[in-house]
Amino acid sequence: MKLLLIGNPNAGKSTLFNHLTRGHARVGNWHGVTVGALEGRAKLAGKQVTVVDLPGIYTPQGRSMEERLTRAYLDENPTAAVLFVAECASLPRTLPLLFSLCAGRKTALVLTKRRAFERRGGRVDRLMLSRRLGCAVFFAEEKRRLLLEDAAKVLASRPLTEKSVTVDGIWSQEREKLGALDALLMNTAFALPFFFVLLGAVFYATFAPGSPGDLAKGGIEYLFSDLLVGVASGIPSAVVRSLVTDALLAGLGTVLGFLPQIAILFFFLIILEESGILSRLAALTDGIFAKVGLNGRAVFSLVMGFGCTAAAILSTRGLDDKRVQRRTILCLPYISCSAKLPVYLTLSASFFGNAFLAVLLLYALGVGMSLIVAVLTNREARAPFLLEIAPLQVPKINFVLKALLFQVKQFIIKTATVILVFFAASWLMSHFSWGFSPCAIEESMLASLCRGLKWLFAPVGMGDWRIAYAALSGLIAKENVAGTIAMFYGAFPYGGASAFALAVFVLTCSPCVSAVAASARELGAKRAVLYAALQTLTALLACYLAYFLWTGGLVYALLLCLPVALFLLLRSRHESVCRKRGHKTLRIHR
């Protein structure tokens, strides 16, 4: 038997799903968190029930891709029971949707955000509302045992009959006034500078020398490079000792050393999402994004791209315009995700003494590239922009810590599985010949396979197949680049120009396999593979251009651009003064 959770976006469906199933579905204080049907198991009234968390829906017709998915799922499961989730504050406008979607089904109404509603002077008479609706009504802010007991009532209830119900006498709310802080955050002159200052402070605390992120990174590197390598140096077998020290500890130590800084970035993103600031930022930046063919809703996906590109691509399903979704997905690979951070920090020491300024430069360059892509692909008008502003709130510390620990756990699991296997396989192929006998690295299996790739980065001063292998390994997972460089070289052996060029390649090339798979799910496999190939090709060209500009080409480019710009300026002024006039006189009388 299935039990469906439906309701408006940001009503609390995913939180209720987690309570009922003990799951870890992503929740957030903004639209587009749930972009597909998510299933879990719960035991209700002694029966095993499949609980399905569906994307938010505003109208039965469903304008957005999320709403159409929910509508289709309801049509495919006509006998499934429903827990209709609604905020206490939005009850009057959600009751018509309740009857439109749930008539003829076993239904219970779940009211969320009760405490915040009552603090504003609101009141809901749950028992009277239940009698008028003819279905069970309960509040979601209860312990899990009580939630399970209340949710089980829907299984024994009668199908909901469509009727006209008013909230007179059972619901009231004092008119909410816009607070001073909320008014400031909706003021463009204050909010946008405040956001950029906040972002700069987070970057400083994460990357600046002597910052908490930098100190924690140094502690983990000391653990791996000194303590664990010292212990592993006592292993009797030379082959096993090389595997442990040169591949596993060198590679994993490099990647895990950036875990504290990644955790700080994720902490900032979670606070930004849960506080309601992100939805205000989306509303304020809609005018800016309209100029490049996107809309304010794209902010949710673009900001999430700083955490994980694959998750950000999936979140674009919350956009109500397929053309805007496609343009947003094209922009997302240039937003630096957390996996690119270890690569930036590994290379930054070669071209910039201050890691904070180097990373800030690369992040800004990525944002600029994404906007350029949006401008170049803006050929069609976008749909009208509609967004519900999430309430401003102080994030719950237990939720923030739980979400942060989940992200940290996912990073460690990825490092301990996919990346660990990659490092072990790379070490094996670089230390053994095709006859599986130990050999020098230039005579190894990996060298014979990758030697032809060295020409890819030869124009930027790195004619070494190991660099090409490290750079292309980022197509699997971006963390591989930093770990592979550490495994082969220890520290990056080339100069600042080459380091900057390689960082630009990692910034602009196709995202990881998971992101390409997410793109294929949204746009189709053929289009996703085509986009990935084009991005990798343009990344090589961008890498060459970055090297050319860094090694003095910037001066030549400016000298070339100045005469062209002067010519265009003089030409435009000449045309404005000596503009050709039509031969026909202006008719001012009929």
Radius of gyration: 28 Å
Distance between the termini: 77 Å
Tell me the major beta sheet: 6 strands, mixed
**What fraction of the residues are assigned to beta strands by DSSP?**
5-15%
Low-pLDDT ranges: 582-590
The shape is: globular
Number of strands: 8
Estimated helix fraction: 55-70%
- Say what oligomer this is: single chain
Give the overall average pLDDT: 82
Q: List the domain count as a whole number.
A: 2
Secondary-structure-derived class: alpha/beta
Strand order of the largest sheet: 2-3-1-4-5-7
Summarize the structure in words.
By secondary structure, this protein is of the alpha/beta class. The protein folds into 2 domains: 2-172, P-loop containing nucleotide triphosphate hydrolases (Rossmann fold, 3-Layer(aba) Sandwich), CATH 3.40.50; 188-432, no CATH class. The chain is built from 25 helices and 8 strands. The chain has helices spanning 13-21, 65-76, 91-102, 114-119, 126-133, 144-152, 180-185, 188-207, 212-232, 238-256, 259-275, 277-284, 286-290, 298-304, 309-315, 322-331, 341-351, 355-376, 397-431, 445-450, 465-473, 479-488, 496-508, 513-523, 525-577, and strands at 2-7, 38-44, 47-53, 81-87, 107-112, 123-124, 136-139, 171-172. A 6-stranded mixed β-sheet has the order 2-3-1-4-5-7, with helices on both faces. A two-stranded antiparallel ribbon has the order 6-8. Strand 2 and strand 3 (47-53) form a beta hairpin. The termini are far apart.
